[in-house]
Amino acid sequence: MRRLVVALTLGVLCTGCGTVDWFREKREARSETAQLVGQADKLVREGQPSAARGLYARIVAEAPRDAVHAKALHSLAQLYVDPTSGLRDYRAARQAFARLLTDYPNGEWESEARTWQAALSELEAREAELVTREAEATRLKTEAVKLGADLQRLKRVDMNLERRR
Question: Given this model, what pLDDT does residue 1 score?
């Protein structure tokens, strides 16, 4: 009986030590990810958005799914809509916000991500409409030039007819 109690106690202690190591490794991995996010945030503040984008993208691709990962994904999406970053890409921003909503549906950034997604969808729709209108305006200008040339040709023909009469 004593041997069984000793064996069980050692088993629990050994398992507990392994669990503590596992938790320590997880915490260190999280803190390393948090440090990388901090470095990327610092790069943004220092005016190096391209370097920050690369670091955020690496974190998003490799880090475990947790609150730090969500912050990195949110910050990456924000870089794509920031007019001062020089990295504006509304499609990539909308995809990042959609991923944020998919991966973290009830997360800290949910309402902001939904708002940005709606705004970006509206912006893309208006840009598409603007492109369509510009194409129509270009077509109409080209047609007006052709009509002007045809009108000049008709005037010359009419003048030639008048001379012949």
Answer: 55
